[in-house]
Amino acid sequence: MKYSEIKDLSNEEIVTRIQEEKATLTKLKFAHAVSAIENPTRINKARKDLARFNTELTQRKAKAVSESNS
């Protein structure tokens, strides 16, 4: 998912997507540990998407805190 698409999501949607990506990443890691998965780059994609969601959520929280302190 592109970062521009993530910016359009609400905070609740981002939190939901973080939970989904964590579950997906766990399943992919487990499947890869048991036997090699067909496309191991999916693990990297899931990790990067998870990081993008976390980054956007952290930036929104920091922005909300800075606005409340002003």
UniProtKB/TrEMBL annotation:
Keywords: Ribonucleoprotein, Ribosomal protein. The keyword Ribonucleoprotein applies. GO terms for cellular component: ribosome. Coiled coil: none annotated. InterPro entries: Ribosomal_uL29, Ribosomal_uL29_sf. It comes from the Bacteria. Transmembrane segments: none annotated. HAMAP family: Ribosomal_uL29 (MF_00374). Belongs to the universal ribosomal protein uL29 family. NCBIfam families: L29 (TIGR00012). This is Large ribosomal subunit protein uL29.
